[in-house]
Structure formats: C-alpha cells, structure tokens
Amino acid sequence: MRRVPNLTILGSADIKAFEGGAQVGERFLGMAERDFTISSKAHIIKEYVPREISLEIGRLLDFMPVVVLTGMRQVGKSTMLVNDPRFADREYVSLDDPIFQFSLRENPDSELSSYGRMTIDEAQTEDDLFRAIKRALAREETPGRFLLSGSASLPLKKATAESLAGKAIYKRMIPMTRREILRNIEEEPFLLRFIRKPKRARNLDIRPITDDEVMRGGMPQVVLSPREAGDIWLSGYEQTYLERDILYLSRIENLIAFKTMLRLLAARSGQILNLNQVARDAELNYNTAKNYLGLLEELFVIQRVHPYTRSLRSGIKKSPKLFLSDAGIACWMAGCSSLSDHPLRGFMYETYFLENLMGILEAHCSGWTVHYWRVDETREVDLVIDTREQVVGIEIKTGEQLGNKDLVSLRTFMKATPECQLCILAYNGGEVADLGQGIWAVPLGLLLQ
C-alpha cells in the first residue's frame, strides 16, 4: 500500500477556530497538509479532543524504538494516533487495511523499509509483523521507529516479548477522563500536587461529580455525543465491538453464557471478586468462567485491583477487586437506568473514580500502582496508591456531608500501615479540610481535576 495524494481534509479556518486560536490552528494545519494513507482517513475528525496520554507517548518515542499503545476497543487510540499533532510526522497504517496486510504478508521486510517512522494500528492481528520489526531494528535501530496499537493485551505482549524483548514499552489508554472531557489537561492533576503537599482550601468553584457523569462514563462516542446517541452506542457496544475481539481470539464456547457472565460482572464492579459465585450464576463451570475472565482482561474490558500487602500482614483479604474499565458500560450492562437510591450507586462511583485515576496515572506516573485494603467489613479502604515513595489511602463517598464513622477505616489502615502518612476521604463537597492525623477531606471533583 502507498500513500494517496493530498486531500483537503480540514479547512484552515475550521482548524484555526478549533480550541485555542492560531497556535493550535497552525499545528492542525500542518497535520492537514501531510500525506494520509487510505486507512487513516476513516479516523480523521474535525473536532479532535486532545488526550492526556499523548504527551507521555511522545516522550517515550524519544527514547524507545518501539512503543505499544493498548486499551479497550473504541477507547480512542486510532483517533489520537491520526489526529494528535504530536504524531503528525509519522506514517499511519492499519492492519485492518487488506492492501497493507497483503503487502506485509507477501514481503514484510520490503514493506516496512518503504516507510519512515511508522504507526501501525491493530498490530495484534498479524504475528509476522513483530518478526519483521525485529529484522528492521537489526538493520537500523532508532528511537521512535515504530508505534504499535491494539486492543488485545495477550497477543501483543506475547509477540513483543518473543521478538522485541528490551526494545518495546507499553502504555494503556483509558476511557476519557473528566479532565479530558472538560478540556482541562494543561495543568498538572490536582491529585498529584496534593500528594506532594496537602493544604487546606475553601470557597472553591468545583463541579461536583453527578450521577449522570458516572452513568455516561468515558467512552468518547458516549461523552462527546448527545445523551440519546450515547445510549444507542452503549446498547450496541457489546455486539458491534466486543464480539469482534471475541471472535478474533476464538476462545468462547458459549457466547450467550459469556454475555451473561459479563453482565454479572458489571453488577459486581467495585466489589471483591467471587468467581465461584459468578460461575454458578452464569451456569458455567469454574475453569470456563476463569478463562472468560482472563479473556475480558486481555480485551481491557475489566481490570483487577489487588490487595495492598506490602507489610505481609496476616488477615488481609487476598482476592482482587473487580472493575469494569468504564463506568458507563458498567451501568448499562448492570441495568442501571438511574443511580438515585440504587444499591450499586457507591460501587459505580468507585468504578468512575478508578477509571479517572488510572487515566491520570498512565499519563503522568509510570510505576505507581493501585490496590485496595480490607480485613473485614469494618476495616477496609476503597483504593490504595503506592507511589514507591509513599502510600496513600483513598476512601470514596458519594455524599456532601461527612461524619466520624467515615474516618474509622482510614485511621485503622494508617495504624496498620506505618508507610502510609496520608489518607484522603473523597466526598462530593466543596472544601479541602484537614481532619487530623494525616487524613484530609477532599472534593471528588477536585481530585479528578
């Protein structure tokens, strides 16, 4: 496959009017003047909303010969790779394009050598690609030579581990964060500043997190569309996109039972995973349910959060918490038409918070890990961030008011975890308050700002 002649993709007036005036307009105009491959034009959009992880991807391309961007399908990977000005000097191809796929299979070395700095989308679909990349790097290894993208974790990691050990680094794109949706990614995230130096703040102009935000989640086709269009997209996500990856990986014996299991997991998002119970409810044997769970994790539809056990104290729960990767999909598949007085409301807020937290950490904090802590029902902390230098406990409340009972678990955690000197009680109020003994009350809207 070769490049197509220049086409008028965006008008310069449209570009300069887009978010930020002349400076941003000039960057987008430069992108409009580049040569586009046939496979890239499907992803060109007029009103691209910048993604926070693009800066980190750009930084890694300055050092590593191969950068692999993963994430669940339809999270916005291709849109970013084609539209973000940081990648405007790269040549984009996709293995969804049958012409490129045929050329790669017939003569992979010649095909890759005909390109400069390449972005290859849907890379998980072609195993021979990685061996060809290995040979290309043996001939000439330069930083940023290949940027690969795909929506299935295991095939990508297996292929790169076998062929590109020591030459590739992975980053995961999360559904859109609140910062991205509100076009507010220029400033450093408040959470990171607060972890470095907690301080009081009052009379803040903060938008509280709403039930509607949680139910919409962060999938671009939902949050950037009118409500009705977003609902239609959610209703078709399972069949239109998820089944495509399922059929590619070809490990589903009973598609109906698989879908039932996914809905059961959605209703348990934010809770400790009991796979035996899920298997029984889905009428699956344990091993089949375990395989399906692994598949959903490979597709980034779910993620497991493991308990914080650095101190190796006995009595701490060892089972992971399970989360769907997007709160909007979780609410839809769990059948939540409203979160008002819904028994899953707190769990869905926790799912939404984690989704946003992971987006911030992927873009800014390589090496930080997220856990939870639980001994029993009266001694548990929703999320625990391990920065390698300190440990931060976070308890998530959906209400605007706080009481003494809300502090019990955080105090217990700090007492049991000497390395924890800071805990955050996240609530939907409007004031940052020092509650004493290293515990702070911080508005949810501010933590995700």
From TrEMBL:
Cite the InterPro entries for this sequence.
AAA_14, DUF4143
Domain AAA stretches = 65-182
Question: What is a single Pfam family found in this protein's UniProt entry?
Answer: AAA_14
Query: Where does the DUF4143 domain start and stop, copy by copy?
Result: 243-398
Quote the PANTHER family the UniProt record gives: CONSERVED PROTEIN, DUF4143 DOMAIN-CONTAINING PROTEIN
What is this protein identified as? ATP-binding protein
